[in-house]
């Protein structure tokens, strides 16, 4: 008996044949119609299969998966809507807070009653763009003397500036101050002299006083040396009542941040310290010969003060000196400003007073 050898390499095995058939059907589904007739398709019964198709389990699985995906979509939509709602609420709250803040700021912001009070700090230029106004800055360490158009004198302290009209009007004399300055005002009852500084308006007819806006933030201090002054609020809606200073050495403080005011009178301690053995009270000097005043200053401040080429005996001085807060240099500056004098600080710690027209090099 002859046995026919299989010359193939395993390509005709049942598993390989099934794979080849599946591949063929996949590449060309129309081959099905060639293998099975229409009648064969109609006679086929699913119950006759050896392995029934899990239709119900598959359907349940599909429904569960569809429900899960639908729930996930609804959750994403809910989270998105909730986020948008929170953003809208937050935006509305921020808008309301902004309106309230702006309203509060507008209420607290000073409304200047006079245009002269708007120029603080004074622009740092030698001349403003307005040809009717002049600006003087003092960036030096020493006090700078400024003569105003009416003849009044200003002692401008370091890091301070003033702005004033080149020609005062027939009804008023107005000055704007940023920093600290001493004012010796020429008397003119028909034209009040007003200084705008730090939310205050200080008015005088003929007197001397010092205004300081640089000592503490938001605070303006007005100190009376001679005469009388009235201090008023420079805001449209006045934040404090008018204050009158009529005692030498009195001072008034206004805090523009809190609208707090304070009227300060000389204490007994200050009065005793300002008293000399000759009964000259530096806190209340009234028509005292200037040479006696200089002598009292030398005693209180413990310094030597020389007088050259000028007689002070015939000069009567009226004013006040706060030895608690003022230095000897500040006291001498104020005295010299009023009386057309100059002083020089010598190397040995003493001071020399001489006429304003005298050059230091000519002093012997």
Automatic annotation (TrEMBL):
<feature type="domain" description="Protein FecR C-terminal">
    <location>
        <begin position="286"/>
        <end position="350"/>
    </location>
</feature>
<dbReference type="Pfam" id="PF04773">
    <property type="entry name" value="FecR"/>
</dbReference>
<keyword id="KW-1133">Transmembrane helix</keyword>
<dbReference type="Pfam" id="PF16344">
    <property type="entry name" value="FecR_C"/>
</dbReference>
<keyword id="KW-0812">Transmembrane</keyword>
<feature type="domain" description="FecR protein">
    <location>
        <begin position="140"/>
        <end position="229"/>
    </location>
</feature>
<feature type="compositionally biased region" description="Basic and acidic residues">
    <location>
        <begin position="13"/>
        <end position="22"/>
    </location>
</feature>
<feature type="compositionally biased region" description="Polar residues">
    <location>
        <begin position="1"/>
        <end position="10"/>
    </location>
</feature>
<feature type="region of interest" description="Disordered">
    <location>
        <begin position="1"/>
        <end position="22"/>
    </location>
</feature>
<dbReference type="InterPro" id="IPR012373">
    <property type="entry name" value="Ferrdict_sens_TM"/>
</dbReference>
<protein>
    <recommendedName>
        <fullName>Ferric-dicitrate binding protein FerR, regulates iron transport through sigma-19</fullName>
    </recommendedName>
</protein>
<dbReference type="InterPro" id="IPR006860">
    <property type="entry name" value="FecR"/>
</dbReference>
<dbReference type="InterPro" id="IPR032508">
    <property type="entry name" value="FecR_C"/>
</dbReference>
<feature type="transmembrane region" description="Helical">
    <location>
        <begin position="86"/>
        <end position="105"/>
    </location>
</feature>
<keyword id="KW-0472">Membrane</keyword>
<dbReference type="GO" id="GO:0016989">
    <property type="term" value="F:sigma factor antagonist activity"/>
</dbReference>
């Amino acid at each position: 008996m002859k046995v026919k050898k299989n010359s193939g390499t395993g390509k005709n095995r049942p598993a390989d044949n099934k794979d080849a058939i599946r591949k063929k059907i996949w590449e060309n589904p129309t081959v099905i119609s060639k293998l099975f007739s229409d009648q064969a398709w109609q006679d086929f019964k699913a119950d006759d299969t050896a392995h029934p198709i899990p239709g119900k389990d598959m359907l349940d699985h599909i429904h569960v998966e569809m429900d899960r995906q639908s729930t996930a979509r609804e959750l994403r939509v809910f989270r998105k809507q909730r986020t948008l709602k929170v953003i809208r609420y937050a935006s509305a709250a921020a808008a309301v807070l902004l309106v309230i803040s702006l309203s509060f700021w507008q209420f607290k912001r000073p409304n200047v009653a006079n245009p002269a009070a708007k120029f603080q700090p004074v622009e740092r230029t030698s001349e403003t763009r307005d040809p009717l106004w002049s600006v003087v800055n003092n960036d030096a360490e020493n006090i700078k003397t400024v003569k105003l158009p009416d003849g009044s004198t200003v002692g401008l302290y370091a890091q301070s500036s003033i702005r004033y009209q080149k020609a005062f009007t027939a009804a008023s004399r107005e000055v704007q101050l940023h920093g600290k300055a001493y004012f010796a005002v020429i008397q003119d009852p028909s034209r009040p002299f007003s200084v705008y500084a730090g939310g205050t308006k200080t008015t005088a007819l003929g007197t001397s006083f010092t205004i300081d806006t640089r000592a503490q933030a938001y605070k303006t201090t007005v100190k009376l040396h001679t005469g009388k002054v009235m201090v008023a609020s420079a805001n449209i809606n006045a934040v404090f009542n008018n204050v009158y200073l009529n005692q030498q050495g009195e001072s008034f403080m206004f805090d523009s941040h809190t609208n707090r005011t304070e009227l300060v009178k000389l204490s007994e301690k200050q009065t005793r310290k300002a008293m000399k053995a000759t009964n000259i009270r530096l806190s209340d000097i009234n028509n005292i010969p200037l040479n006696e005043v200089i002598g009292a200053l030398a005693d209180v401040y413990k310094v030597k003060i020389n007088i050259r080429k000028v007689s002070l005996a015939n000069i009567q001085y009226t004013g006040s000196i706060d030895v608690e807060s003022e230095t000897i240099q500040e006291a001498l500056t104020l005295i010299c400003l009023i009386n057309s004098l100059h002083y020089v600080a010598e190397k040995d710690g003493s001071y020399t007073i001489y006429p304003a027209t005298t050059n230091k090099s000519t002093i012997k």
